[in-house]
Amino acid sequence: MVTKFHPPSLVRDLYGLGVRHVGENRHQDAAPKAQEVADLDLSWHFVGQLQSNKARAVAAYCGVIHSVDRVSLVEALAKFDGSVDVFLEVNLTDVPGRGGVEPAGLATLAESALAAGNLRLRGLMAVAPQDESPADAFDRVLMYRDDLLKVAPGATELSLGMSGDFPEAIARGATHLRIGTAITGKRPQGT
Ligand SMILES: *Cc1c(COP(=O)(O)O)cnc(C)c1O
C-alpha cells in the first residue's frame, strides 16, 4: 500500500484493517511518519527517487528499496550497517533520467549490487510510461528480467503495477504491487 502524502493516522487505520507493508516516496515525509507509528509491526518500502546522501537514513527504516537505479546509490547503500532488500528500477520511457536505469546498464548495476555484501537483490521494479500500453511496457520488463537472471539468478521478483495498471502487472507475474489511490482514494496533495 502506497501511503505517500497521507498522514500517520491513515497508516494506523490501514494497519487495523490488516495492512502490513507500506510504501513511501519521500524521505522527509516518510521518516517522521514511520516514527509516529513505530509501535506498529510494519514493513516500510521506499519507492521514490533516492538521493545517495539520504540512502543510509532511508535504509535505517525501510527494509526494502524498490528504486535503486545507479551504481552510486548502490555504493551509498553498501555503507549502511545492516542488510537491505533492493529492487533495481528500470526506466521504461525514452527520457533518460526519469528514474530507473537504462536497460543497457542493468547488468552492470546488478553486478554492483551483488558485490555489495549487504544488499539482497530481489528483482526489477518499473513504472509504466504514460504513452505506452502497460501490457507492452511490462512485457519489456519480462525481457529485461531474462537478461538480469543471467547475472543474478536469484533476482526473480517483480515490483510492477499501480492503481491504473495492476491487472496487467498481475498477468505478468508481479510479486509486488504498489497501490495507492485505488484503495485510499485521492491523495490529500501532490501526486
Ligand atoms: C505513488 C506511487 C505509486 C502508487 O500510485 P497509485 O496510482 O496511487 O496507485 C506506485 N509507485 C510509485 C513509484 C509511486 O510513486
Quick tags:
191 residues; alpha/beta; TIM Barrel; 2 domains; 8 helices; globular; binds pyridoxal-5'-phosphate
Overview of this protein structure:
It is globular, with a radius of gyration of 16 Å. It has 191 residues and is α/β, with parallel strands linked by helices. The mean pLDDT is 96. It has 8 helices and 6 strands. The longest helix is centred in the last third of the chain and has 18 residues, at 134-151. The chain folds into 2 domains: 1-46, no CATH class; 66-177, Alpha-Beta Barrel (TIM Barrel). The structure holds pyridoxal-5'-phosphate. Pyridoxal-5'-phosphate (PLP) is lined by residues 2, 4, 25, 47-48, 127, 162-164, 178-182. The site of pyridoxal-5'-phosphate has 14 residues, from helix 8.
